[in-house]
Design goal:
434 Repressor (Amino-terminal Domain), mainly alpha
């Protein structure tokens, strides 16, 4: 028997692969955090908001803003993300699916 998928079929999806590996949840969480960090940075750039100004608006330090915007930093709470969104005139939306 061969390991090749049958001609005309695609094999398993990437999502199925992540579930099989046991990393689906962590991968999804990290992807969501990266997207939110990217979006916050884009809005800050569009509105000419510096990290120092963002820190002032959130009543925190600039190093905390660096962590907030770091796509690899996953220890940021939903509350912090929501406050950051509000600080730039946006809202954070989450949904279960």
């Amino acid at each position: 028997m061969t390991d090749k998928p049958e001609r005309g079929t695609l094999g398993q999806s990437f999502g199925d692969f992540l579930k099989e590996e046991g990393t689906s949840e962590a991968t999804t969480e990290q992807a969501v955090k990266r997207v939110i960090a990217f979006q916050l940075a884009q809005v800050m750039k569009e509105q000419n908001i510096s990290k120092s100004e963002m820190a002032r608006r959130l009543e925190t330090s600039r190093s905390q803003i660096d962590r907030l915007l770091d796509p690899n930093q996953d220890a940021v709470t939903i509350g912090t993300l929501s406050r950051a969104a509000n600080a730039v005139g946006r809202t954070l939306s989450l949904k279960l699916s």
